[in-house]
Every structure is written in C-alpha cells, then in structure tokens.
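Human: Here is a favour to ask of a fellow structure person. Comparing notes only helps if you start from a blank page. I am asking you to supply a protein in sequence and structure-token form. Write it directly below this note and I will take it from there.

Assistant:
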Amino acid sequence: MAARTYSRRTFLARSGLIGCSLAASPLLTPVSFAAAPWDNRLVVIILRGGMDALDVIQPYGDPAYAGLRPSLAGGPGNGGLDLDGYFSLHPALAPLMPLWQAGELGFVHAVSTPYRNKRSHFDGQDLLEAGTPGLHQRRDGWLNRLLQVTPGVEARTAFAIGQGEMKLLQGPAPVSDWSPDAQLALSPQAERLASLMMEDDPLFHAALSEALDLARDGAPSQLGGERRPAAHRRIADYAAQQLRQDSRIAAFSINGWDTHNRQSGALRRSLGRLSDTILTLQAGLGTAIWRKTTIVAMTEFGRTVRENGTGGTDHGTGGAMVLAGGAIAGGRVLGQWPGLDEAALFDRRDLMPTGDVRAYMGWILNAMAQTNRADIRDVIFPGVDLGRDPGIIRA
C-alpha cells in the first residue's frame, strides 16, 4: 500500500500545468471501495470533464432545442432513442435500453451542485466530491462523511485503486492506495508532455485525447501481445468482484467528457465506456446482487445550450445524473424541466438547474443506507434542501 504524498491539484500546481485539458483528461482513474453494515450496494461514478446533458438525454420535444444545436440536436429523427415522447437517449447508450425497459435505468435532468459562474473543472469537481455549498469549506468528501455517521463501520474500510485521487473518499475514515495495474494511467512524464501539448491548441487537444483513448483502450498486454480488455471494463469487473464480497460502496471516475471540439465523436466514445461499465457491473454482480445495487453517475457541470463553431460545447451549468441498477425505480426522466427559451437559461447561455444533485443523492442514501435525514442535511451534505422524496429507490 503506497501512501499519498501529493494531491492531484498539488502535483499539477507544482508542475505549472493547471488547465482545462488535464482536469478533464482521460488519464486519471482512481477507484475506491468501502465496507458498510448494510446489504445494498452503491456505485458512484464521477464523469470528469462536464457531460453534455442535452446530448445524452435529448429534449427533442422542446421547440427551441433544434435551433440551438444545428449539428448536434438529437431526437428520434436524428438517431436518438425515444424515452417518453419528449426526451430521447443518445444512440451510443442503445445497449442500455433493455435496462430502461426493465425499469433499471433512469435520469435526472437539469441538476447541478451549488457551483456557479466560474466553470472550472477543478473547482467544480472539488465541490461535487466535497458535497458542500461553497468551495474550500471542507477538506473531506461526502462519501467519507457517510462512513463517519454509519454505525458499525470498521476503522479501515476503504482503499483506492489506480493513480490520482478522489476527494469523495477523503477524510477521517482511512483510505489506502493500491495500484494493481500500472497501465491504468500514463507515466507522470507522459502526462506532463501530453498536457503541455494540449494546453494551447483546442483542436490538437481533441485529436490527442482521441489518440490516447485508443492507445489505452484495448492496449496489447505485455504477455504474448494479446489485446487486453479496456481499462474501464477491467475497473468495472474488479469493482463487481469486490462488491460480491464485503464491499458495499465503490467509487471511481470515467474521464474524457470535455467536448469543446468535435463532440459527436468524443461523446460517443465516452458514452460507450459508460455503457460498457454499467453492463460489466451488471454481469459481474449477478442477478441477486444487481437487484440490491444503485449506480449513480454524476458530473461537475453541464455544457452550453448552444453548440460552438467547432462542433462542440463549452463549460455550462445545468447537467444530468445517470441512474442504473436493480434497486432503482427507473424508466423515468426525473427533474423539473426549465425549458430552453433564452429567458429561461442560466446567464442566457446554460441549462438552468432546477435541482441539486446533493438532494437526489441524499434521498438515495436515505433509502439504500438508512441514513437519517438530519445526518444528510447537517453532516454529509451540509445545508442541503432535500425537498420531497423523488422515490428513486424501489420500495
């Protein structure tokens, strides 16, 4: 077990490399687990880079949608898979449609953390994982605080796999690091070179990110040159193994959601990884444990409503959550839809958030971990307004 010396932010700051491209890079994939005294399973996936909610859960029924996205607009007539007569699903998530039809896939639209205006990946991810209403208020993560208020949690309950860090699990509940596969990330020297090259050229950033994705996924093994499963599948398979045993919580990242340029190709690849991850978890967990499992995928912020001049979208505000698992009451797009008229947008550019990701997560914890509401409001997500129970978990 190797102790952490520097945080991701500290390393980048000391290297002079803080920037959009590396914060959203597909190179950092830490995984964490925790044991807990309940029988349900929780998987939290951080989608680093800012997932474009309007391209994933496409509001084709909104009259303003198509005009705002001349090349990116989806819908049943543009390859989208109809969900409910108003929203459609990006075709890259087609393998998940059987889960939707079984009520084991759902979405929450027009949600965000309390983070507003600056649209920094680092700050947005920090706030998402800290679960606090403002930046730099706490140094621990909300999943660690869940462990702190859960009776029966042992002193050393969590460990992280891979390189980098997840603030989600930082805190008094100890977390150890383990790297079972050195090929889950590039070397620090390669990361530094790649980030320097990407820093000043958005088009090259997109092309290099694609090349790195292809180089990482399905890279030949060092034994016999056979192609190995892609990193995200290996992570999901290992997570399923742990959740079949004593672990009850797993947390990791899927990166590469920063789609400033050529979004159609980049998003398709990222959604393919997300789909593969969910289905690998389902297969690895088996039917009995899958019925007790909740998967929540969340992102630091959404993206602009209007597409930009390079076939992409820029940092925005309102986004979406992806919910999967046999424990959820799916087959629904939850959330209050604000509309896409200019007057209804946040800062006249972004999807207006009408819900707080922390509130939805709080109700999930209340149902699947029996966490009391006072601990959710006062400790895990300080100051959150839970509102009404949206009924995400099956009764």
